[in-house]
Design brief:
With 376 residues, the chain is α/β, with parallel strands linked by helices. The protein folds into two domains: 186 residues, Glycogen Phosphorylase B (Rossmann fold, 3-Layer(aba) Sandwich); 168 residues, Rossmann fold (3-Layer(aba) Sandwich). The protein contains 15 helices and twelve strands. The two termini are 26 Å apart.
């Protein structure tokens, strides 16, 4: 048996989707090495197929990385990848893949292009809606949260039980060594600033966090905003800084880890998420989380965050003031964070995906009713 993994994500800029794909591939590789995967999959031939412009590599021991074809982007997906993988099973982990592959498992992370079209350019919207509809007819769709499962089932006319859930995790961030020099470089005082990480796009709603910080009007407790924009895809919003806001731009994982470890709280104002990894990253470093009431974010954070309406800047300002009064994270808050963190594991998600794929290979051509793998 041959199993191929769509490696186009290694030619793309790193976002949560690409990180998910990389971590799932690493976790599957480790499971195959340890022989903890189903026997048929352990014995299979595995290849991570890469386009010519893939500029990142993953250190894998069991899965072979192979560059194929001469195209890039969607053309590589639909022509080069489809042709090379035609005699095996294919796994696509980053929202897209060839629409005419008969044995294809594709992870679509959310239904944002269907539910929140105002966030996207019309060209991106048209292309990805069409791709979603086609994949729903020809591939097995998987996703990352129960919220996204029901959203995708509704818009793609699928039954929720036909969509397995293989969750995200933040375990990868636990091994990141904080670069504390960023604290001095940004002229911050430890535990005397709020942190928000996200691109300057409408769905990330950073503008509301900036508005709340300005309303709070505490230059001694500024909001540090980390991230950049991508207005070619999204209909972006611009914002500006003052004494209450520090626009830090793009930073390394090590610098972001340092900010997580020294922030008074992490602010996550997103309007729409398929899962919501940054709050878990913050919890990894014991940073209190103030999060949006978006459904997927509540599903991820549970009782380990305080919440606010993402359309109400004053509600966020109140949560920020409450954090200032409460001070450093309490033992009870930290216990709740640890409980949420243990809920999500790359190893469990990869294992659940391999178990599901094993069932699919045993029953090729049939529809399998799946159980909820969200905490698997």
């Amino acid at each position: 048996m041959k199993i191929f993994i769509n490696g186009r994500f290694l030619s793309q800029s790193l976002t949560g989707v690409q990180r998910y794909a990389a971590e799932m591939v690493r976790a599957m590789d480790r499971l195959l090495i340890s022989s903890e995967a189903p026997r048929a999959l352990v014995d299979a031939e595995w290849q991570l197929l890469l386009p010519p412009d893939a500029n990142v590599t993953i250190d894998l021991k069991r899965i072979e990385s192979v560059k194929i074809g001469r195209r890039s982007g969607h053309a590589w997906d639909q022509i080069d990848l489809a042709q090379h993988a035609r005699n095996g099973h294919l796994i696509s982990l980053a929202n897209s893949g060839p629409v005419f592959h008969p044995r294809h498992l594709v992870v679509i992370h959310d239904a944002q292009v269907f539910q929140r079209p105002e966030f996207f350019s019309w060209t991106y919207l048209t292309a990805h809606r069409s791709l979603g509809y086609l994949l729903a007819r020809t591939a097995t769709i998987a996703t990352v949260s129960d919220f996204s499962r029901h959203e995708l089932a509704s818009v793609l006319r699928l039954t929720p039980t036909s969509i397995p859930v293989f969750s995200n995790s933040a375990e990868h961030f636990a091994a990141t060594v904080p670069d504390l020099s960023v604290i001095e470089r940004l002229k911050l005082r430890p535990y005397n600033f709020f942190l928000s990480v996200g691109s300057m796009t409408r769905n990330k709603n950073i503008a509301l966090a900036v508005q709340a910080a300005k309303q709070l009007n505490r230059p001694d407790m500024p909001l540090v905003v980390v991230g950049g924009g991508n207005n070619k895809v999204f209909q972006g919003e611009s914002t500006s800084a003052d004494d209450s806001v520090i626009m830090a731009g793009r930073l390394t994982d090590e610098e972001i880890a340092a900010l997580y470890s020294r922030a008074a709280a992490f602010v996550f104002p997103s309007l729409y998420e398929g899962f919501g990894v940054p709050p878990l990253e913050a919890m990894t470093f014991g940073c209190p989380v103030i999060a949006t009431t978006a459904d997927a974010v509540r599903e991820t954070c549970g009782d380990a965050a305080s919440y606010f309406d993402p359309h109400n800047a004053d509600a966020l300002r109140q949560r920020m003031m409450e954090r200032i009064v409460a001070g450093r994270i309490s033992d009870d808050e930290r216990r709740r964070q640890q409980a949420r963190l243990t809920t999500f594991s790359w190893r469990r998600s990869a294992s659940a995906m391999l178990q599901f794929l094993d069932k699919k290979t045993d029953r090729a051509g049939t529809t399998i009713e799946v159980e909820d793998h969200n905490s698997a």
